[in-house]
């Protein structure tokens, strides 16, 4: 069967199974099965493929029809123009999180500094920042050794030697200043979904690790913990920037003010939702 026809059939099947992005899913999965990129398919859609390539594609489409995320099936996802390896040990990088990267780059205009990405997962935020700020020292930490290994592999594959990763339960493995060096920017996309949120029962999130998604206190527990602990690790004019859910901003701004942060504000993502709240230690 020609690739075009395979795509049409798979798109139909995935749309029927409820995928919100059936055509795109089919293209990415077929590209993966025949080891070509999507744009190649646009030009060579009348070509055929081998029996085994087709069997591989059928298996991928069957898994996707069950709801399995495309990024786990292909083992990769693009974020900030970087190709990142993904695994079921970590959250799949999301376009929303690019808001946090853009903000960190805007506030950290100096050519050198130190950034910490806490709960780094695939390393997405740390690596995107490191790719834009070669003079900065970027450190990513994660509780899970499997995530640390994945993020480090991503750094190596992208040739980003200014980013390194280590295992740490939040800040516990990092020496606090004055023994350790302070950070100019601390960023995090921690778990922030409430355990009873119906969103957890839909789409890709069903297959992602709950430890990366769910937090106590209606999803606020980890964000609030970071607000009170990050101060110790920030430089005098350092910034804390936290991604969060769109109903959480007011609570977080209040918590930052109470904790003594200045310049507290919230930034919206491309969808118009309040997505990142930030504050700095002294008035700048
Ligand atoms: N934004 C993600 C979602 O809604 C959640 C990410 C997170 O909990 N850090 O699926």
From TrEMBL:
Keywords: Methyltransferase, S-adenosyl-L-methionine, Transferase. This is Release factor glutamine methyltransferase. It comes from the Bacteria. GO terms for biological process: methylation. Substrate binds at residues 189-192. Residues 113-196 form the Methyltransferase domain. It is an enzyme of class 2 (transferase). CDD domains: AdoMet_MTases (cd02440). Methylates the class 1 translation termination release factors RF1/PrfA and RF2/PrfB on the glutamine residue of the universally conserved GGQ motif. One of its GO terms (molecular function) is nucleic acid binding. Belongs to the protein N5-glutamine methyltransferase family. PrmC subfamily.
């Amino acid at each position: 069967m020609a690739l075009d026809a395979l795509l049409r059939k798979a798109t139909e099947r995935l749309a029927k199974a409820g995928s919100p992005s059936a055509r795109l899913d089919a293209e990415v999965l077929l590209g993966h099965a025949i080891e070509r990129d999507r744009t190649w398919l646009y030009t060579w859609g009348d070509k055929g493929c081998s029996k085994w390539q087709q069997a591989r594609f059928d298996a991928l489409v069957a898994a996707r029809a069950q709801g399995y995320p495309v990024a786990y099936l292909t083992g990769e996802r693009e974020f900030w123009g970087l190709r990142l390896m993904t695994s079921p040990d970590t959250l799949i990088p999301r376009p929303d999180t690019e808001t946090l990267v853009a903000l960190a780059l805007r506030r950290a205009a100096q050519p050198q500094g130190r950034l910490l990405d806490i709960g780094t997962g695939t390393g997405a935020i740390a690596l995107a920042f490191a790719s834009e700020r070669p003079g900065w020292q970027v450190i990513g930490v994660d509780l899970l050794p499997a995530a640390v290994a994945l993020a480090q592999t991503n750094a190596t594959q992208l040739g980003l030697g200014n980013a390194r990763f280590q295992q740490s339960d939040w800040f516990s493995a990092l020496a606090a200043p004055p023994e350790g060096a302070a950070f100019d920017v601390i960023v995090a996309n921690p778990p922030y979904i409430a355990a009873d949120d119906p969103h957890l029962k839909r789409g890709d999130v069903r297959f992602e690790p709950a430890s990366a998604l769910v937090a106590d206190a209606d999803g606020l527990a980890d964000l609030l913990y970071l607000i009170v602990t990050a101060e110790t690790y920030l430089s005098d004019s350092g910034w804390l920037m936290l991604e969060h859910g769109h109903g959480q901003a007011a609570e977080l701004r209040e918590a930052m003010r109470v904790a003594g942060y200045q310049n507290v504000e919230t930034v919206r993502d491309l969808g118009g939702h309040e997505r990142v709240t930030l504050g700095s230690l002294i008035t700048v």
